[in-house]
Amino acid sequence: MLIVAEGPPRVGSLALAVRLAVFDAGGYPMQMSQQRSRRIRGVVSLGTGVAVSVALGSSLLYFLWVASIRDSEQIGQLSIGTFVVGLACAFAALMLAFSMIRAIRRAEDGRALLAALLAGGFAIAAALALAASDVLGKLAA
Prior knowledge:
Blueprint: E1 2-5, E2 10-11, E3 16-17, E4 20-23, H1 32-39, H2 46-68, H3 74-105, H4 109-140
Antiparallel strand pairs: 1-4, 2-3
Helix pairs in contact: 2-3, 3-4
């Protein structure tokens, strides 16, 4: 995709406005629907999405399995389960932060904002899970 300015910028009362035309690889102007479809894509790559999904899914399944067990080792196992959930959320937050940086470098503002919001949410979830793991670990001891 090639972005070319059409004509000199016009000076308005408050801001500088530049009219832009967006061209595809063949040199033809892109339609608005093509521009929109090129902008709305996934926030993370497929490999990262699969890795995060597997990590979160398996750690949450382990956590639910441990929660169903009723014995003297349950608190210690819940501590390990919440620790693994926290690590998976921290991994997701880190991958989304890298995705946000890539989107910023490519000037994809919407994708960068979405990645930043998701990364913040996963970072908060990681902090909560790791704090819960610490509390459960102290209770188990």
